[in-house]
Amino acid sequence: MELLNTILYTAVTYLFIIAGLRLLGKKELGQLSVSDLVFIMLISEVVGDVMRASNDSLAAGLIAATTLMLINRGFKAIKYRSKKFNTFLEGTPSILIRHGKINHKEMKQNKITVEDLEHAGREHGTGDISTIALAILEVDGKISILDSEKLKTDVPIED
Predict the structure, then answer these.
(1) Handedness of CA 35, 138, 117, 30 (dihedral sign)
(2) Is the dihedral of CA 122, 128, 131, 137 positive or negative?
(3) What are 4-44's pLDDT values in tens digits?
(4) Which residues contact 123 (CB under 8 A, 6 or more apart)?
(5) Alpha-carbon 15 to chain mean position
(6) Residue 151 to residues 16, 82, 125, 139, Cα–Cα distance (Å)
(7) For every residue of 7-70, which 3-state class applies, written as one string?
(8) CB-CB contact of 39 with 68 (8 Å)
(9) In contact, 143 and 117? CB cutoff 8 Å
(10) Nearest-angstrom CA–CA distance, 159 and 140
(11) Kind and range of the H or E element at 137?
């Protein structure tokens, strides 16, 4: 009987979490923010005991999961309305290269090596760092690269 409870609780919890994540509007896993990552870690902790059919009730696990979903939804609403809160929670992008010149201060602060930049450049079809007009370390950890040829003249790069 305990095995059947585990199967049932796991299935109900799975469906509930999937429905909740869909309601939160996450399109791609690659779009996870810091708050999303913490949310997913906490959800796994909260529902873990429920799925193992421990003494915690299914209702208690679902209530806890709902609470986390509502908090996460609230954070998203506040982030949308407040640039300061969003910056506090997510951080800001860092310019690593501008006009082919490496910003060593940002590289050191973000623990990015020249090899990391070269690798990102190759992924974007630019093997030579000196041809990179702009390299930005995005808040999600990805490096965006624009080379001089792809950069349109109508997109100014401020110094």
Answers:
(1) positive
(2) positive
(3) 766 677 677 777 776 776 666 544 455 567 777 777 777 77
(4) 145
(5) 23
(6) 45, 30, 14, 21
(7) HHHHHHHHHHHHHHHHHHCCCCHHHCCHHHHHHHHHHHHHHHHHHCCCCCCHHHHHHHHHHHHH
(8) yes
(9) yes
(10) 24
(11) strand 132-137
Structure tokens that stand for 106 in this block:
């940002």
Question: Are the beta carbons of 65 and 59 closer than 8 angstroms?
Answer: no
What φ, ψ does residue 155 adopt, rounded to 5°?
-110, 100
Structure tokens at 124: 């974007």
Q: Which two tokens stand for residue 57?
A: 């009730």
Q: CA 117, 94, 96 angle in degrees (round to 5)?
A: 30
pTM of the model: 0.57
